[in-house]
Specification:
9 strands; 149 residues
Length: 149
């Protein structure tokens, strides 16, 4: 079983040039406090992800963390419903929750994470079945929380 997986991996590497893709890029565009009560607040991270390829790329997962000054760290792996359009930009919003929502606006934040995406093709599907990790694109940002009305 293990040797079969190694053969599949070697085959995929040999044929990789036939289906080579350029890696998408992701940028943190905004981090904002979108809802707040005395008990807690919702922080939304807005990403812009550019797909330089001629094929759509479904996003399969997002793993991220948001740390807010004096409020702690929120860590999550999520399944955002998104597909990166061919040669286009997709906006993806990721949410985080913190206690003491009323006092979060203006605090320093740091955000980092990765998006896993599914390349096209039968070879990639076979590799996914054998649990070869999907390619991913990283993102990071820092600043001060804005507050949406």
């Amino acid at each position: 079983m293990r040797s079969r997986g190694m053969i599949l991996l070697a085959l995929a590497m040999l044929l990789g040039g036939c289906t080579a893709l350029n890696q998408p890029s992701a940028q943190v565009r905004e981090v904002a406090l979108t809802q707040h009560t005395p008990q807690g607040g919702r922080v939304e991270v807005t990403l812009e992800v550019f797909n330089p390829n001629d094929v759509p790329l479904p996003v399969r997962w997002a793993s991220y963390q948001v740390q807010v000054e004096e409020a702690g760290r929120f860590v999550l792996t999520d399944l955002p419903p998104a597909t990166l359009p061919p040669r286009g930009v997709q906006t993806i919003t990721l949410a985080a929750a913190f206690e003491d929502g009323g006092a979060l606006a203006g605090r320093a934040y740091e955000v980092s994470g990765e998006l896993g995406y599914q390349p096209p093709g039968q070879i990639r599907e076979l590799l996914t079945q054998y649990r070869v990790p999907l390619p991913r694109v990283a993102f990071a940002g820092q600043g001060r929380l804005s507050s949406e009305p």
